[in-house]
Amino acid sequence: MRISYKKLWHLLLDKDMTKTEMREACSLSTASLAKLTKGQNVNTDILVRICGYLKCDISDICEIVFDKEEPTKD
Questions:
Q1: Is the pTM of this model over 0.70?
Q2: Residue 42: which of 30, 33, 52 has the closest Cα?
């Protein structure tokens, strides 16, 4: 299982905004932006700041992706 920020990147494209513009507007560090770009975990505060700036819900910017090999619990 992993987190995907593809929804965030699509939202930025829809808003004609670059990652750098979002980083500056949300006061994110370059390290945090790099983690987002690589699909790594970031602090929830970062996701909340992005959602606040973009006026969206957290489910609009990220999602959990399940690996096919990973067994499901019943």
A1: yes
A2: 33
Q: Does 68 have pLDDT greater than 90? A: no
Q: For residues 61, 64, 47 and 56, what is the CA-based torsion angle, rounded to 10 degrees?
A: 30
Residue 6 and residue 21: Cα distance in Å, rounded? 17
Q: Please answer whether residues 61 and 27 qualify as being in contact, where contact means their C-beta atoms are separated by less than 8 angstroms.
A: no
Structure tokens at 8: 């965030």
Domain 2-65: which topology? 434 Repressor (Amino-terminal Domain) (1.10.260)
- List the chain domain ranges: 2-65
Q: What are phi and psi of 2, to 5 degrees?
A: -150, 170
